[in-house]
Design brief:
This protein has 258 residues and is an alpha/beta fold. It is built from 10 helices and 9 strands. InterPro entries: Glyco_hydro/deAcase_b/a-brl, NODB_dom, Polysacc_deacetylase_ArnD.
């Protein structure tokens, strides 16, 4: 299994083996550098790709799903302009979704969090600051970000969130240690829409729909207009193909709140 612990063990054994061999025959220092470089490359890719489950196990895709169900998820809200539009569309198509909320945005838009819950959707933790350097935070700083957001949301909906999606989907040893402390379930995705990168809604829609299968988890963001336009077309596609959009806790049969 390709994960951080196994890669470290393999690299260490290989490094020690090369050291032992080098006592009998000459081995270039570049071989050792190459081994370390390969370890670094694999670790960087694994850290930035949540679907690998490289540092910790995440709920990315329900391969055992025997119903035509998918989970649409939204990161980075709640947003005063776009979240209400998204809620309107979900209501119109009788769809449910999961919103991974940033704590500082929750503080500004508590009524939107209440509305999300009232309309049958799920909320999850997406850190307090969503800092660009979140992946460089130490264990205690990550714990503080998660617990601060949990407490803020709990004060609004009287529920303790049990789901966490790390900012940018990045995982590392510090986040792993923090999650062992907070006991959150990590939610990833297997369909990344790139709606924050691409500026053509048809390209975004095609990227999603060509990968739709039962059990899929779709990543979108309720923080921009293009996502609203893509969502309406996506919901129509799901309806026409007899798919049901459900919350991630329904898709994986897990508890969303502690």
């Amino acid at each position: 299994m390709l994960n951080f612990k196994n890669i470290n063990r393999f690299t260490l054994v290989l490094f020690i083996g090369l050291l032992i061999i080098s006592t009998f025959i000459s081995i270039s220092v570049f071989v050792f550098i190459l081994v370390l470089l390969c370890w670094l490359i694999v670790t960087i890719i694994g850290s930035f790709n949540i679907t690998w489950n490289y540092h910790l196990n995440a709920y990315n895709f329900n391969k055992t799903c025997n119903k035509k169900q998918v989970a649409i998820t939204f990161d980075d809200g709640p947003n005063a302009e776009f979240t209400p539009q998204i809620l309107d569309l979900l209501r119109a198509y009788h769809a449910k979704a999961t919103f991974f909320c940033i704590g500082k945005n929750v503080k500004q838009q508590p009524k939107l969090v209440q509305q999300i819950i009232a309309e049958g959707h799920t909320v999850g933790n997406h850190s307090y600051s969503h800092s660009k350097i979140f992946d460089f935070y130490g264990k205690q700083k990550v714990i503080t970000e998660i617990e601060t957001t949990n407490a803020l949301v709990a004060s609004i909906i009287n529920k303790e969130m049990a789901l966490f999606r790390p900012p940018y989907g990045v995982t590392n040893p510090a986040i792993t240690k923090a999650i062992k402390h907070t006991k959150h379930k990590i939610i990833g995705w297997n369909i990344r829409s790139l709606d924050t990168v691409k500026d053509n809604e048809q390209n975004i829609l095609n990227r999603i729909t060509k990968n739709i299968t039962p059990g899929a988890v779709i990543l979108l963001h309720d923080s921009q207009n293009i996502t609203v336009r893509v969502l309406e077309q996506l919901l129509l596609f799901l309806q026409e193909n007899n798919y049901q959009s459900v919350t991630v806790d329904t898709l994986f049969n897990i508890e969303a709140y502690a």
